[in-house]
Amino acid sequence: MSDWVIILGMAVVTYATRALPLLSRWKVSHPLAKRVLSYAPPAVMAALVAPSLLAPSGAVEVGPKLWAGMLGAAVAWRTANLPLTVTIGLGVFGIMHWLGLG
Amino acid sequence: MHSVDMILFKELAEDRRRQLQTEAEVDRLATAARTGAGNAVSKQFWRGFIATLPLWIGILPFGVAYAMAARGAGLSAAETIGMSLLVYGGTSQLVATELLANGASALSIILATLLVNARLVPLAASLAPSLKCLPAYARGVLAFTLTDPSYAMSAGRILQGVAGWGFLAGSGVSLYISWQLGTLAGLAVGSAIAHVTSLGLELVFPLTFLSLLAPYLRSRPGGLAALVAAGLALVGRLFVPGSAYLLIAIVGGSLAGALLEGRR
């Protein structure tokens, strides 16, 4: 089958996941459901952060990424400052990498 | 009035008041989303666009990696950029190229894409009340740009009514452009910059999400939601093949936070 058919199929299902909740008239009215959705932001961010820092390739790795990530977490916790967190985290990783630690 | 009637009357009044409060709250958020909390939409758009620029550092190498993987799997240049333009889902695109290289059927690839991207459903659903005042075509266009990073950057602000849909649009467009640029760069330069993915630039994502996550950790339910989601994601990533672990982690974490809040 032509790859374009696959690509179009992928596009349709992906767009559906994004658009159906926004376009359908089905309203979330149950209070518990609303509360659950309100906690989606922290859950999403934590679910994305944890594996990428602790097990980026499918197995737990201890290395510069983890240390840079933990330092970044500490900076984020204290300051909640995005540019600062990113700069310090990348900087620490870069230094460790350059020093041959990982 | 009879005392029982008084109690019932008071309860009904309480329910009605709570219902009105909630409706008022939803209206307030929807109005804030529509009007951008008093700021012009174009201003919101650029604020969202610029706020998301740091994430380009992580997305560009990711796009390069995808393009190289796609070419390696036998996709033409047109198909590679076509997938980025039409599907616009980094992880699912990488999964798909891997499946293609292994000769998987079209149906299994499409199903895998659905599974990987199913995590977008709760994201969109949580933003739906704030966006309901937009006309359908606007929501449809906005939906196309929704990704985890644009959600992470915008949702907190939108749900608290301090930013409008313009911000979401700006961050969404910014990330869309960066993804296409990354894909094109990978197609153009190929293996010459293969080493760029070992620079650890993808750290920009978890670092960004951590700084956005920090305010939520001040509350117990928020902290629990994050903890449960992180734990489920980690366990899922380590032990469960495939990408369902993200959806499970998001739903589990959100449930945990909601249940704890309900108990207080």
Outline of chain A, from the CA principal axes? extended
Number of H/I helices of chain B: 13
- What proportion of the residues of chain B is helical, as a percent range? over 70%
What is the strand tally of chain A? 0
Count the beta strands of chain B.
0
The SS-based structural class of chain B is mainly alpha
Cα-atom radius of gyration of chain A: 20 Å
Q: In whole angstroms, how far apart are the ends of chain B?
A: 33 Å
Mean pLDDT score of chain A, rounded?
84
Helix-strand makeup class of chain A: mainly alpha
What is the percent of helical residues of chain A? over 70%
User: How much is the radius of gyration of chain B in Å?
Assistant: 22 Å
The helix tally of chain A amounts to 5
Unreliable segments of chain A (pLDDT under 50, ≥5 consecutive)? none
Q: Write down the overall mean pLDDT of chain B.
A: 83
Beta-strand fraction estimate of chain A:
under 5%
SSE string of chain B, helices as H and strands as E:
HHHHHHHHHHHHH
Largest interface: A-B, 69 and 96 residues
Query: Can you write the helix and strand succession of chain A as a string?
Result: HHHHH
